[in-house]
Amino acid sequence: MDLKPDGTTRGVSFVFVVLGLVALAAGLLAMLFIAIQGASEIPDPPAQKFLLRLAWLSLLLLGMTLVLLVWAILRHVRYRLRSGPPLKPSTYVNAWELAGKRFRLEDDEEPEQDGEEPDTRG
Fold first, then answer.
1. What is the pLDDT of residues 67-78, one digit of tens each?
2. Domain ranges of the chain
3. pTM over 0.85
């Protein structure tokens, strides 16, 4: 991927980070619900204790993931607000015409006569 000064890769990496954190949060949320449901259905106390600890761990990791997600979004918003509005394109200027008006040639050594073409035979 080519690094461009306009920040295109920054936007792409932001999208990948946000999508990754959202996918991680969804997986941890699913693990939390599965562990809670399994703990409520299993009559074995050691297995219930293990599943409840797994539910607490997934809840802790889910909270950390959400904190990272909010941090990434706020950082992106802060960067976008700091950069200001996008620049408007400048008006078209014909540089060749301006250069022709500013630059005047000195008198040529051999002035051309009317109706004759310059000798190019060498």
1. 999 999 999 888
2. 8-85
3. no
Separation between Cα atoms, residue 73 and residue 83, nearest integer Å: 15
Question: Pick from 62, 68, 76: which is nearest to 32 by CA?
Answer: 62
Q: How far apart are CA 82 and CA 42, in angstroms?
A: 54
By the 8 A CB rule, do 54 and 35 touch?
Answer: yes
b vs e for 17-47, b when ≥16 Cβ sit within 10 Å of the residue's Cβ?
beeebeebbeebeebbeebbebbeeeeeeee
Burial (CB count <10 Å: 0-12, 13-18, 19+), residue 51: buried
Q: How far is CA 97 from CA 47, 92, 93, 105, 106, in A?
A: 85, 12, 9, 15, 18
Q: Could you tell me the sign of the dihedral formed by the alpha carbons of 43, 48, 51, 56, in that order?
A: positive
CA-to-CA distance for 56 and 42, rounded, in angstroms? 17
